[in-house]
Design goal:
Rossmann fold, alpha/beta, globular, 473 residues
């Protein structure tokens, strides 16, 4: 696999020297797209030439246009259809919006196949012979099994956020799609990380792919500042209330579980802020309305699970709060990538339980940076527990039914131990789980056993993570 690495420096950066057709350049000018991002600058020209591409870039770097422009240009010059497979409904809608802006005025019709929407309108869209199909894996397989979509005319295949799809357990579905599309096609794969599974897919199914890596894996956004608070679980809502007073801008709060997201959204509303939530218990229309309201400023605070940690472009987010640390260190990078986008500045704050110091070590090793610990400020008095928000539960599409295991909105298996997923300690890869612990077992052999135990300290551990006490308690 040929490799190109870019750190983002290039003289005379412009879309006009990448081999893009004049009609597409006109559309880019109308949309005020003037300077390509590093992944766009490196990937567009070889993709337009018909080469297979593996693009490694952090979230928020403009990967959609990096494959969208070549797809549009090549479809304007040849017959056939492009198939774009993405992990989540929100990302599918965002990709389609990009094609509507750039491709639709040039006659490129699209169809979106996602769960949470009825099949009939999607079948009708497919009957109109779209040139581009954007789909999530499960719903795509629904249509394949019902023979409402054919893949024999696919001339371009794009797997976007491939590592996320594998984390969500969609490898069997991806293999099924790869078996159905013609061998004589152009393939593009985009991912934030390059795992062994992704490398296998690239080497077995792509033709001499060009690997383009625009920044080392684990790289965070350049203009985001980061800090930690060591805080007891019961003090998290009080600390969040204090931060929402100190930071007045648009705020994105991440929790590990959907129930945690609902609880935090209710707490933020009780604090007097406009808040909404996105997680797997919300219908697609509710999720779209919440995201749209957050973008327009109707809601100041969006509380979400990792369903929006990748690929969703919301400009102007001033603050990202990790109310719960993510289960995987790589998701930390994707979460804080929601701020400091497009050259703007942003800030990320993480709430860390005293027993989670090893999680922080993992994150620091990944991003190659030591995170500063800020002493707890004086916290406001605790508020009464607000009433639970009415929960809208719906029967998900077979997008979930096709997955090999039942997963939470972040693509991880549901926890069954304890009232909060963050309260259960994890254990060492090399140590057996204590009997009767009730801890789950992972379906991923490489992840079985979890991480080192957080319940006890290690000799010589840094006093950065000493037990905190809230001032004024």
């Amino acid at each position: 696999m040929d490799t190109t690495t870019s750190q983002g420096e290039h003289s005379g950066s412009s879309f006009r020297n990448l081999g893009i057709a004049p009609s597409i350049l006109t559309m880019l000018d109308k949309l005020s797209y003037t300077t390509p991002t590093p992944i766009q600058r490196e990937a567009i020209a070889p993709a337009i030439e018909g080469k297979d591409v593996v693009g490694i870039a952090q979230t928020g770097t403009g990967k959609t246009l990096a494959f969208g422009i070549p797809v549009i240009q090549r479809l304007l010059a040849q017959d056939g259809r492009a198939l774009i497979v993405v992990p989540t409904r929100e990302l599918a809608i965002q990709v389609d919006e990009t094609f509507q802006k750039v491709g639709a005025p040039l006659g490129i019709r699209t169809a979106v196949l996602i769960g949470g929407h009825p099949m009939r309108p999607q079948v009708d869209a497919l009957r109109r012979n779209p040139r581009v199909v954007v789909a999530t894996p499960g719903r795509l397989l629904d249509h394949m099994e019902q023979k409402t979509v054919r893949l024999d005319t696919v001339c371009m295949l794009v797997l976007d956020e491939a590592d996320r799809m594998l984390d969500m357990g969609f490898l069997p579905q991806i293999k099924r799609v790869l078996a159905e599309v013609p061998a004589n096609r152009q393939s593009m794969l985009f991912s934030a990380t390059l795992s062994a599974e992704i490398l296998t897919i690239a080497t077995k199914t792509m033709k001499l792919p060009l690997r383009i890596e625009v920044a080392p894996q684990g790289t965070t956004a350049e203009r985001v500042t980061q800090e930690l608070f060591i805080v007891r679980r019961d003090d998290k809502p009080r600390l969040l209330e204090k931060l929402l007073v100190d930071h007045r801008g648009s705020t994105l709060v991440f929790t590990r579980t959907k129930h945690g997201a609902s609880r935090v959204a209710s707490q933020v509303t009780a604090m007097g802020h406009t808040a909404t939530e996105i997680h797997s218990n919300r219908s697609l229309n509710q999720r779209k309305a919440a995201l749209a309201g957050f973008k327009t400023g109707r809601y100041r605070v969006l509380v979400a699970t990792d369903i929006v940690a990748r690929g969703i472009d919301v400009k102007g987010v001033e603050l990202v709060v990790n109310f719960d640390l993510p289960e995987q260190s790589s998701d930390y990078v994707h979460r804080i990538g929601r701020t400091a986008r497009a050259g703007a500045e942003g800030h990320a704050i993480s709430f860390v339980l005293p027993e989670q110091r090893h999680d922080i070590r993992d994150i620091e090793r990944l991003i190659k940076k030591q995170l500063s610990v800020t002493p707890l400020p004086a916290l406001p008095d605790a508020r009464p527990t607000p009433p639970r928000r009415p929960e809208t539960t719906y029967s998900t599409s077979r997008n979930a039914a096709h997955a090999p295991r039942r997963t939470s909105s972040g693509g991880r298996p549901y926890r069954s131990s304890g009232p909060s997923s963050t309260s259960a300690p994890r254990h060492s890869f090399s140590s057996p789980r204590p009997a009767g612990s009730g801890a789950r077992t992972s379906s991923h052999p490489s992840r079985s056993g979890g991480r080192p135990s957080h319940s006890g300290g290690r000799p010589g551990s840094s006093n950065r993570f000493s037990h905190p006490r809230s001032p004024g308690r």
